[in-house]
Input
Amino acid sequence: MKLKNCAMAVLAALPLVATSTVAAPTAAELQDRVYGSVFLEVYSPDQDKGVSQAWGMTERGDGYGINVGYRLTEHWSIRAEALRQELPVRTDSSKDISGNRAGLDVIYHLDNLPLYVGGGLRNITTGQSSSAANLVVGAEWFTTDRFALNIEASRFQGISKPYADAAIRVGGTYYFGAEPAVEPTPAPAPVVAPEPAPAPVVGDADQDGVTDDKDQCPNTPITDKVDTVGCSIFQETSVSIAIKAQFDNDSAVVKPEYHAEVEKLAAFLKRFPNTDVEIAGHASNVGKPAYNLKLSQRRADAIAEVLVSKFGIDRSRVKAVGYGVTKPKVSGNTAAAHAANRRIEGIVTASVKEAVQR
Output
C-alpha cells in the first residue's frame, strides 16, 4: 500500500513538473542512445482473478521495476522490462501475493509530441505463470537534456490463459551517451563573377550570304539569288507549246508521223497539270462550207482522241473545236494553199516560276 500511495502522489505532482520542463532534445539527438528507467506502478488484475482461487483472488496492487532501452532510429526504440509486484488477496487485505513480470517492447515515438505508443510480450508469475501481449500508451517530459519523467498506461491481454489486466505507472528515464555533434554550417563560398562568354560565331552553312541566325531558307542552291532572309528569288515566265498536223483531202485520219507531235503535247500537259488545251480543226476551201465545218470538227476530235486514249490526258482538259474554212492559214485557191489549210493547231501556255540566277 505504501507503493500505491507513493505512485498516486507522483501522479498528482506531474502537472506541476510538466510546467517546469525544458526544451526536449530532438529525435535526431536521441537516436543511437541507450536509456534506462525506474518506475512505480498501480496494477489492476482482471475481475475474474479476484474470484479465482487459481489466481489467488488478487485485486489492485502495486509494483516497481526497471527497463533498459535503445533508440534505434529517430522514431523507433526497443526496451526490456523487469518488475516486481505485490497484489493483495481480496479476502484478506493483510496478505499479499508477490510475483514478477518481464518482457520486451517495441516503441514508436511520435513526431513533435512527447507521446509514444508500443507493444510487446510479457511473462507474468503473480498468482500463476502466464504469457500476455502488452499495449502501451505513454508520455515523456524532459526536465534536462538527459532526464525525463514518464507516465504510461498498459493493457495486458492473456495469451496462454484468458484475462485482461491493466496498469498505470510513473517513473523517470535517463539517456546515456553523448549527444550527436552538430556540424557547423559551412561558410558560403565567395561569389566570383563569371567571365563574360565569348561572342558566338554565326556561320553561313549554305553560303548564300545570309548568316544562319537570319536564314529562313537553309540549303538554298548556291546558284540562286536570295532575298534578305536567305530564300531564293523567283520570277514568273511563260512557256508554251504548239502542234501542227496535216490531213489528206476530205480525211480526218491522224497520220502516224504526227503521233510524236501529239505525245509532246501530252508531256507538256502532264508537266503543267493546271492547264487545258484547245484542239482547233481547219479545212481547205474546197466544197461546201457546211461540210467543211463538220470535217474540221472530225479532225479536231481525232487528235483529241489520240491525246486521251493513247497518252492518258483527262478528257475534261481537252476541248476540240472545228472552225471549217473560217481561219485559213494560206489564202488562195491553189493546191498548196488547200494542203496548208487542211490542218490541226493546238497551243498551250503556262506560267512558270524560275529561280533568278546570281
In short: The first strand starts at residue 34 and ends at 44. Confidence is low (pLDDT under 50) at residues 13-19. The chain has six helices and twelve strands.
